[in-house]
Amino acid sequence: MPATMEAGTIQGYCVGEPWNQQAVFMGIGVPVITDYEIWPNNPEKVFGVTRQWAEDYPNTHLRLLRAMIRAAHWLDENNNANRDEAVDILARPNYVGADQAVIANSMTGTFEYEKGDIREVPDFNVFFRYHATYPYPSDAIWYLTQMRRWGQIPEAKPDDWYMETAARVYRADIYEQAARSLIADGTLKASDFPDFDAENFQRPQQGELIDGIAFTPRTPNAYIDSFDIGLKGTQTP
Amino acid sequence: MTTITSAKNTSQPTRWLGQRLRSLGESLTPGQLAATGRQMLLPLIGILVFVGFWHLAAPQVDTSLGSFPGPAQVWEQSGQLWQEHVNQRERADKFIAMQEERNARILADNPEAEVRIRNYPGAPTFPDQILTSLVTVLAGFIVATAIAVPLGIVVGLNRHFQAAVNPLIQVFKPVSPLAWLPLVTMVVSATYVSDDPMFEKSFLTSMITVTLCSLWPTLINTSVGVAAVNPDLLNVSRVLRLSFWTHVRKVVLPSSVPMIFTGLRVSLGIAWMVLIAAEMLAQSPGLGKFVWDEFQNGSSQSLSRIMVAVLAIGFIGFVLDRVMLLIQRKVAWNE
Predict the structure, then answer these.
(1) Are A103 and A192 in a shared domain?
(2) A87 part of contact set with chain B, CB < 8 Å
(3) Which residue of chain B has the CA closest to A18?
């Protein structure tokens, strides 16, 4: 992507790290704003599989989830102690391949907004802390409200529909199965995970959105109607 | 009084070996060595001057990824690529060993259990990618030859067929591989569907693109060679009333072999060039994909690694051409 911008084919891009830092290092661009400033602790990456695959290969699915939870835990372990080793792995040519110095910035808690303007952003990448890997339904509902706002969901839907869709797609039950198996064989502790007997509906440490409007996951239609721009109520695109 | 001397009763292989040893001995005499040295001196000087110029000029060119790679960086990166290959092979061996141990444990518990060894799923290394490129280009070239030579013979033998087919050849010849590629990709994706495919789709796409672009020189040269058979030989064939197949096998093919081989050499060169572009777009795991991935990575070693690939591509193209020339010298009668 930096190469395409340098060639003049595009004027800018919106993408994850390390391509923003790479533009700064190459001297061809500056990041204007980061995701953390728009909505801290927002849901970002997902691991998605088809229902068919999950039904055909339940054991592989579980093992894969266990491996990912362990990897996320390792990345945040001991106050980010393993991040340097992670940077070494990511810098390999068949993974991310960018230079280590470029990847290291965001992975180790600093961000260079332009040459010389380096700021501390310790939670730029959060992998496991604040229960980051748990699939809270509020995350799904936020994305659904935005899809409704911008017309990807053409008609108005009742609040129940948002709840049901979130429960159907964000499978906390499978996550809990993987987590319990990790606790059972002693790899991770119960305190690493949220309390599985609680409702676990809304992400507890949800940051504030940049537009200042409070996100109310239990009343998604009210949230959609509170915006100035975008579809509201029963409007269609 | 006549004396009959019988010829020495040496076997064929011994005679052949004797001949080879004699010519080796002749080439190692001082006079011959000096002549070979003089032959190799000028090319060597040319190469050294070029490398020297490159070494001096490269740091002058600055890009956003650092200065243009010089011979020293290229050498360093080729060592690095080899080291990565060695490391990957070690990891693959450990992976297989671990599976074997686990299978032994399972079988010790339950001798009836079904066990299998899975292949190491790591990314292909630089030598692996070179091999993939070579296999793809040879496959594409062989298919192109299989289509172009018979078609060229038919076109050359029959004036009417040639007049009918010629406009098509002239229109499709200049089409670039990058223009064929999307069409080939869509057709392969739609028609090559199976649960357990023998070939990767990207391999088929690259191979078919290579075929489409490299069959034209062979086709044209074959048809020209066939059309230009010596009229005396054609008369001989008519007098002897040879059947069509015998005519083709005994008269047409042998006399047009030099032209066919010229076409094949040009086709192979074009096939190799087209392959790199096709691999870049089809993402077939060969040298083209290596260059593209390095470019996308944008690390400070990327340009040096791309230069290593460029030199590898050039060297392999040279070797392929030499091999074709050797085959041509064995088969063609006028070289």
Answers:
(1) no
(2) no
(3) B297
* Residue A204 DSSP class: T
Residue of A nearest to B65 (CA): A26
> CB neighbours of A151 closer than 8 A, spacing ≥ 6?
A231, A237
Count of domains observed in chain A? 2
From chain A, the residues in CB contact with B64 under 8 A are 2, 6, 26-28
User: Can you point out the beta strands (E) in chain B?
Assistant: 62-63, 66-67
Would you call A13 helix, strand, or coil by DSSP? coil
Phi, psi of B164 (to 5 degrees): -70, -40
Measured in angstroms, the CA of B67 and the nearest CA of chain A are apart by: 12
Distance between CA atoms of residues B97 and A199, nearest Å: 46
- pLDDT tens digit string along B140-161? 999 999 999 999 999 998 889 9
CA distance B78 to chain A (A): 14
Average pLDDT over residues A61-88: 93
List the structure tokens of B113.
């259990």
Tokens of B139: 């496959």
pLDDT given for residue B244 in this prediction: 87
CATH architecture assigned to B126-331:
Orthogonal Bundle (1.10)
For B95, left (φ over 0), alpha (ψ -120 to 50), or beta?
alpha
Residues of chain B with pLDDT under 50: 335
The predicted pLDDT at position B4 comes to 61
Range(s) of the domain holding residue A124? 14-46+78-132
> Which residues share a beta bridge with B66?
B63
Domain range annotation of chain B: 70-122, 126-331
Please report whether residue A64 resides in a domain.
no
Q: How far apart are CA B207 and CA B205, in angstroms?
A: 5
Q: Quick check: is A157 in a domain? A: yes
Do A127 and A18 belong to one domain? Answer: yes
**B62, closest residue in chain A (CA to CA):** A26
pLDDT, average across residues A188-199: 90
Same domain, A171 and A154: yes
* ipTM of the complex model: 0.74
Angle at B253 between CA B247 and CA B258, to 5 degrees: 155
Spatial contact of B181 and B250, defined as CB atoms under 8 Å apart: no
Q: Cα-Cα-Cα-Cα dihedral of B324, B330, B331, B335, to 10°?
A: 90
pTM of the model: 0.80
Q: What phi, psi does A118 have (nearest 5°)? A: -105, 130
- Residues 18-47, chain A: which have Cβ within 8 Å of B? 22, 26-28
Tokens coding B73: 């960086």
- Write out pLDDT tens, residues A137-154: 999 999 999 999 999 999
Confidence class for position A168, pLDDT limits 50, 70, 90: very high
Neighbours of A31 (CB within 10 A): 17
